[in-house]
Amino acid sequence: MTSMANEPATSKVVCTLFDKNPRRIGVSTTDPNFIGYVNGVKIGYFTNNGTSRDDRSDNLCTHNVPVTCYSSASLLDRRSVIDVLRFCSNEGCLELGRRYHGLIIKSGFGVDQFVGTSLVDMYAKCGDMGSAVMLINRMPYLDVASCNCLISGCAKNGLFDEAFSFFMMFDGIDIGPNHYTYTIMLAVCGSLLAIEEGKQLHAQIVKMQYISDTAAGNALLTMYSKCGMMQDAESLFKGLVQRNVVSWTAIINGFKQHRDFEKALRLFCLMSEDGIDPNEYTFSIALASCASMKNLDIGRMFHAQVLKKGLALGDYVGTTIVDFYSGLGEAGDAGKQLKEMGKFASSASWNAHIAGFVHNEKAEEAIEVFADMVKNDEACDEFTYSMILKACSSLPSLVTCEQIHSRVIKAKFVSNMHVGSSLIDAYNKCGSVEDAERVFTQKSSADVVSWNSMIKAYSQNGHPTKALALFQKMIEGGIMPTNSTFLAVLSACSHSGMVQEGQKLFESMVRDYNILPEETHYSCVVDLLGRAGQLENALDFIKNLPVKPTAPVWRPLLAACRCHNNLQMAEFIAKQILELDPNDATVYVTLSNMYTEAGQYTDAEKQRKLMTVKDVAKEPGCSWIEINNRIYRFFSHDKSCSESPRVYQKLKQIVQQIEKRGYTLSAKEDNVALYHSEKLAVGFGLINLPAGKRIRVFKNLRVCPDCHSFLKYLSTIVDKEIVLRDNYRFHHFKQGCCSCGDFW
DNA sequence: CTAGGGTTAG
C-alpha cells in the first residue's frame, strides 16, 4: 500500500493510471472509507457520511412507502423493488434503502442488472459511495447506466476529481459514454469552472451527434453560463433545436447569477411569448431576481402569479417569497408567507425570515423568530446558526452568543466553515477575544475564513501584533490568504501605527499572492498613512491609484486631516468627496467643527447651513445637536432610540452637562455612539477617539482608569436605565485603552 | 425497466 493515507487522488494521478489500461476497480474490505484501487494502487477516498438524513426514514417508512416494504421477501416484485429504490434515492433515505437491500438479496432480485443499477444509484444519491462502489464491483458486468450512476454519485457528493477518474475509465473498458454521461460530466465541469474540459466535452457531444438531445444541450448551456461565458451560453441557447422550459430557466438563471437581472426578467417575458409556461423553478429565479433588484412591485406581481398557479406554498418558491419580502424589509408579509406555508416550510424558509431581520439590523426580532423555529421543532442548520450568530454580534450579547454556541456544539456544527467563523466573529464583536481564540484552536481543521475571522478579532480588539503573528502562521501553514485576510492585517497595522509593515503587506498582496486590491484595501492604506500623520503621502497614494478614487477612499484622509489639524487639505478633500457623494453629512460636520476650532465662525456656520438646507443630517440611526457652534452627532444602532424626542433631549442634556464639567467631548471626534447591550447602554464616544472609531464597552474590555471614571460619570447623568457594568479590568496592559488609546 | 438538464440562504 502507498502512503497517500489521507488525501483524495487528483485527477491527474488517476488519469495517468487509467491511461495504462485499467482493468478493474477494487475496494478495501478493512477500511470502509477507501473506495478503491486500480491495479493495486489506491485511487480515491470517500467519507461515509450518508447517514445525515436517516432521521427522516422512520416517518417515511410508516407513511409513504408501498406495503411490500414490510412484506416477506417472497412478495416482492421487480417493478416495486425499483420503485422503492427510486423513492429512497429521491428522498435520501439510506437506512430504508439498506433494509430494502437485504430483502432484495433474499428475494434473489439482486442479480438483476436493473435492480443492481437502482441499488448503486440509491447508495450514491444517499451519500454512501463506499457501498455504491462495492456493489459496482460485484455486478456480473458493467454497463453504461451503472457507470453513469457511479459518476453521478461522485458528482452529487462533490467528488469531482473522482467523477473525472471514473469518466476516464470508459476509455479502458468496452462500453462507451452516452448522452447521459455527457450531461453528468458537463455538470461536473460547471461546478469546477473547468471551461477547457467543458469545451472538449462539447466537441465530443457534437461528434457523437448528441447535440440534438435537449438535456445535453441544456447541460452545455448551464456549463457555459456557470463558467461566466454568457455570450456563448446565449448563442448556444438561440441555436438549440428545441427549447423547453428547462432551457429557458437555465438561461434566465445564468443572467441572474451574473447579476443582469433586467435581462433575466426580459427573457422571462420572451419565454411566455414563445408559448412556454414558467414553472416553479422559473418563478423561484424570477422572484429571487426581484429580491436582488429590490423591486417590490414586480416581485408582488410574480407573487400574485404563483398564487394563481397554486405554486406559492412549495418549498423553493415559498421560501423565495419569504426571502423576497424579508430582504426588502417587509417583515409582515414575510411572516405571513411563512405562516401560510405551515408544514411545507423548510428550515430554509425559516432561515430566510431570520436573515431578513439580520440584514435589516433587527437582531432581537431575528432571535425571536429563531426561538419560534426551535419551538416548532424545525431543524436548525448551518445557515440558521450562522445567521443567528450574526444577530448576536450586532446586539451585541455575550450571553446569547454563549447559548447559541452550546447549541452549535450539540448539533455538531463547530467545524462547519460558516458556523465556525461566525462564532469567532460573534465572540469578537461581543468583546471576548479569549472565547474567539478558544473556538479557533478547538476547530479540528481551520479553513481560510476562520483564519480571517481570528486575525480580524485580534486586529479589532487591540492585538495588532497577535494579528500579524497569526497571519505569518497562516502563510507558513500553506493557507492562501484572501482579500479579507489583507483587510484584517492592513487595519491591524493602521491601528497600531505600523506604517512600513502595512505598506509591505500591501505590496506583497499583488506581487506574491496575485490578489487585486479593492476599494476597501486602498481605503485601509490611506487610513494607515493618514493616522500616522503622513497626510501628503496619503494624498500621493490616492493620486497615483490605478483607478479613479471613490468617496470611501477619500474619507479616511479627511478624518486624518481632522486629527492632525490640516484645514487646508481638509477643504480640498471635502471638495473631492462632495463631488462623488454630495449627501455625505460627515463632510459638513467635520468642516464646520474644524472652522469653529480655528475661530472661523462664519465659515463654520456656512457649513451648518449647507447641511440643513441639503437636509443631509438625517441619516438613519443618527441624530445631531449643535452646542456652542459645534456639532455633535449621535449614533445608535437602535433607530427608534436615536430618533425619539425624549432621547434627543436627553442627549442634549448630557452634552451640556459634560461641557459644563469642563470636558471637551471629543476634541477630534464629532461622532458619539450610543450602544445598547442586553438593555444596557454601554458606551459613549470619548475624548480623543481615533476618527471613525466608536467605542463599545464590554465587561472584559480594557479601559484605563481615567476613562472608566468618565464613563461612570456619564452613566450617572444619562438615565436610570442606563447602567454601566462595574467589572472592567483594571490592570496594566500593553495595548492602549480602547476608549482613549492611552497606554497604562 | 436502470442513468441526465433548470430553483432558496451565509
UniProtKB/TrEMBL annotation:
The keyword Ribosomal protein does not apply. Residues 669-744 form the DYW domain. Coiled coil: none annotated. It comes from Xanthoceras sorbifolium. Belongs to the PPR family. PCMP-H subfamily. It holds the Pfam family PPR_2. The keyword Repeat applies. Signal peptide: none annotated. Keywords: Repeat. The lineage of its organism: Eukaryota, Viridiplantae, Streptophyta, Embryophyta, Tracheophyta. PPR repeats lie at residues 143-177, 244-278, 447-481. This is DYW domain-containing protein.
